[in-house]
């Protein structure tokens, strides 16, 4: 089977490092690529990027859509001294108490959320002294069915500590981080949000969505 040519676009510091804003790479169409394997393929072609991508924040997009960050989180917590990596991946399910869910939408008090996430990581390190690295990512805005909403990765020398740390982190995140979710149901009409309502005439059905704590 012939390979597929994909155009890779570089921006900012990456463009400066490789000396070009775009190039074409061959990909095997028989392989189901993930964020991590796409990245490996790019680094194979441009080894100069390896050290930069390990130590700096970046986003990878395909067809103008960001790829899930969970693969990148895994790469950030792995180290030569790690004997175990544990993770939790939360995704949007299509039902709640018998109702058909079409999507979730998250919003946060972002400055406080970041502060509390840092505090939570510090708490985890004090509680589980043998863990090495922690990575947490939470989506904001709309999250379609089966998409990732939250990802947590923890590494350490032994599995018990990292398993317990991940469980602690997700429970505390849900309980204490200022993030709220809006659950949309099958009978929700997007046009409703633009309609005016009064005591005599209202087309807005509040039962078509529900604001909830991020539990």
UniProtKB/TrEMBL annotation:
InterPro entries registered for this protein in UniProt: MoaE_sf, Mopterin_biosynth_MoaE, Mopterin_synth/thiamin_S_b
Composition skew (Polar residues), residue ranges: 204-215
Compositionally skewed regions (Low complexity) per UniProt: 191-203
Pfam families: MoaE
Chain residue ranges for the region called Disordered: 191-215
Gene3D superfamilies membership: Molybdopterin biosynthesis MoaE subunit
Top-level taxonomic group: Eukaryota
GO biological-process terms attached to the record: Mo-molybdopterin cofactor biosynthetic process
First and last residue of the signal peptide: none
Protein name, UniProt field: Molybdopterin synthase catalytic subunit
């Amino acid at each position: 089977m012939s390979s597929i040519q994909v155009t890779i676009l570089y921006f900012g510091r990456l463009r400066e490092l490789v000396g070009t804003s775009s190039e074409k790479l061959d990909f095997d169409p028989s392989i189901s690529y993930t964020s991590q394997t796409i990245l490996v393929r790019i680094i194979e072609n441009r080894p100069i990027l390896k050290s930069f991508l390990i130590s700096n924040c970046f986003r990878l997009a395909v067809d103008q859509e960001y790829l899930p960050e969970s693969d990148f989180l895994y790469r950030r917590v792995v180290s030569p001294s790690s004997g175990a990596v544990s993770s939790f991946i939360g995704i949007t399910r299509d039902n709640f108490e018998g109702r058909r869910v079409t999507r979730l939408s998250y919003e946060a008090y972002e400055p406080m959320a970041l502060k509390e996430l840092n505090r939570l990581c510090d708490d985890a390190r004090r509680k589980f002294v043998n863990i090495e690295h922690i990575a947490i990512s939470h989506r904001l805005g709309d999250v379609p069915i089966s998409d990732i909403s939250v990802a947590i990765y923890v590494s350490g020398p032994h599995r018990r500590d990292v398993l317990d740390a991940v469980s602690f982190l997700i429970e505390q995140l849900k309980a204490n981080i200022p993030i709220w979710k809006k659950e949309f149901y099958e009978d929700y009409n997007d046009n409703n949000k633009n309609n005016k309502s009064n005591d005599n005439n209202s087309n807005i059905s509040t039962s078509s969505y529900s604001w909830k704590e991020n539990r």
